[in-house]
Design brief:
- By secondary structure, this protein is α+β, with helices and mostly antiparallel strands.
- It folds into two domains: about 5-55 and about 155-225 and about 330-385, FAD/NAD(P)-binding domain; about 100-145 and about 225-325, 2-Layer Sandwich (D-Amino Acid Oxidase, Chain A, domain 2), CATH 3.30.9.10.
- Helices cover about 25% and strands about 25% of the residues.
- It has helices at about 25-35, 70-90, 110-120, 125-130, 155-170, 210-215, 300-310, 360-370; strands at about 5, 10-15, 20, 40-45, 60-65, 95, 100-105, 125, 140-145, 150-155, 170-175, 180-185, 190, 195-200, 200-205, 225-235, 245-250, 260-265, 270-275, 280, 320-325, 335, 345-350.
- Strands 7, 8, 9, 16, 17, 18, 19, 20 and 21 form a nine-stranded mixed beta sheet that branches. The chain has a six-stranded mixed beta sheet with strand order 11-4-3-15-23-22. Strands 1-2-14-13-12 form a five-stranded mixed beta sheet, with no helix packed on it.
- A hairpin with a 2-residue loop joins strand 13 (about 190) and strand 14 (about 195-200).
- Helix 1 (about 25-35) crosses helix 8 and helix 2 crosses helix 5 (about 155-170).
- The structure holds flavin-adenine dinucleotide.
- Flavin-adenine dinucleotide binds next to helix 1, strand 5, strand 16 and strand 21.
């Protein structure tokens, strides 16, 4: 697709209705929504697909209705609906319903926010909790909320499904092409390592690399890439932690202020995924470089949690992988126009909780880029909540 003007041996040169930079889950959904609206769209990715250098790889992500912030809780029914639509289109399951337990001390703000989003009648007594969640030992005084809609999204499969659906609707994916330069204008020019492309609208969803992409456009967003240790813990007794246990989120832990979450043993038989919802500041180009004497800092905290809450698991991880969060100071997403170039839309700062909402995020980015009325209130996602992000020289 696109109006291709490539001569043999020359850089590719083509025009599109829209260009999206970054083929993670957010950019892929944005491109898909543009293609659904019959816009000839180019999706550019710096690495060859699939890759494990960003934030969207791996086999599992939690999806849930329970959300402490009302604006996300309001978006979740829409997101569940759009995931179902993609499942139907792909003809393959992407979501596995397991239920989700939110665990924490009464009065904890995160727990109480989730309680509000779920409504009455969703508190588990201790007997029901241990019946549903074999092996979980809550602390005295913990409250357990039940989110029956909670479950696992099969992340790799979902990413492939949305990219395939985009291609089926005429979209073009060019991977292994890093964007080097963006020239703004009524028709923008995007120069990559292999081509020059033009379009009247651009969406930037470059994950942990967002500031590198937007800096030449005079913007510096308060984004902090974090390396996350993705830890899998072996059950002491084979078969004791089956793949049908619910997901969980534990809040209000004094030694783990960002919370801990877990998913059933799905990717590796007998290994349960339990992670800290925070990481170590990093440069995405050097994610796996650990300095001598600074081992994985959050593993000890997780071991501590496991020995008291999940005593059926060994206290050292059997497998560790890496992934990136890109956090904003308030952990709300950035979904907005560039303050100076209104045909450049930015989606960033998903702060470790963006996967479940990607179908809605993609739709919102698409709506912004086409000048349509957004389907949800955009105030929580505005760039203007962070003063001083635009360089004075612009
Ligand atoms: C360990 C872990 C667990 C998580 N668990 C959950 C969960 O349970 N539930 C949930 O909802 N969310 C979860 N998340 C968060 C979720 O996965 C992310 O919010 C989401 O994947 C972010 O997607 P993205 O498209 O913004 O970023 P990415 O997937 O990183 O995509 C950005 C892409 O842009 C490309 N790019 C960058 N610069 C350029 C350039 N110059 N030219 C071309 N391409 C470029 C990158 O290569 C990359 O592929 C988790 C994240 C991690 C790391």
């Amino acid at each position: 697709m696109g109006t291709d003007m490539a001569a043999p041996g020359q850089p590719r040169c083509a025009s599109y209705d829209a260009i999206v930079i970054g083929a993670g889950i957010q950019g892929s959904f944005a491109a898909y929504h543009l293609a659904l609206r019959h816009r000839d769209t180019l999706l550019l990715e710096q690495f060859f697909l699939p890759h494990s250098r960003g934030s969207s790889h791996g086999q599992s992500r939690i999806i849930r209705s329970a959300y402490p912030q009302e604006h996300y809780a309001r978006m979740m029914p829409h997101s569940f609906h759009l995931w179902q639509q993609l499942e139907d289109e792909a003809g393959t399951p992407l979501y596995r319903r397991t239920g989700l337990v939110v665990l924490g001390p009464a009065g904890d703000p995160e727990l109480e926010g989730c309680r509000r989003s779920l409504g009455p009648g969703d508190i588990l007594d201790e007997g029901t909790l241990t019946q549903r969640f074999l092996g979980l030992h809550p602390r005295r005084g913990d409250v357990a909320l039940w989110d029956g809609s909670g479950g696992v999204l099969q992340a790799d499969r979902a990413l492939r499904a949305v990219q395939d659906a985009f291609r089926r609707r005429g979209g073009t994916v060019r991977d292994g092409e890093k964007v080097l330069r963006i020239d703004p204008g009524a028709v923008l020019t995007v120069t990559t390592t292999a081509g020059v492309y033009r379009a009247p609208r651009l969406i930037i969803t470059a994950g942990a690399w967002t500031n590198a992409v937007v800096a030449p456009l005079g913007l510096h967003l308060p984004l902090q890439p974090l390396r996350i240790d993705v830890c899998y813990w072996k059950e002491k007794e084979p078969g004791s932690c089956s793949a049908v246990t619910p997901c969980f989120i534990a809040t209000g832990l004094p030694y783990a202020p960002h919370g801990i979450y877990g998913l059933p043993a799905l990717e590796y038989p007998g290994l349960v995924k339990v992670c800290y919802h925070y990481g170590s500041p990093t440069d995405p180009e050097e994610r796996d470089r650990t300095l001598p004497g600074s081992p994985r800092p959050h593993v000890a905290l997780l071991s501590n949690f496991i020995s008291s809450y999940l005593p059926g698991l060994e206290t050292q991880p059997a497998v560790m992988e890496s992934c990136l969060y890109t956090n904003t100071p308030d952990e709300d997403f950035i979904l907005d126009r560039h303050p100076k170039y209104n045909n450049i839309i930015i989606g960033a700062g998903f702060s470790g909780h963006g996967f479940k909402l990607a179908p809605v995020v993609g739709q919102l980015l698409c709506e912004l880029s086409l000048g349509e009325k957004p389907s949800h209130c955009m105030a929580p996602f505005a760039i203007s909540r962070f003063p001083g992000v635009l360089c004075a020289s612009l």
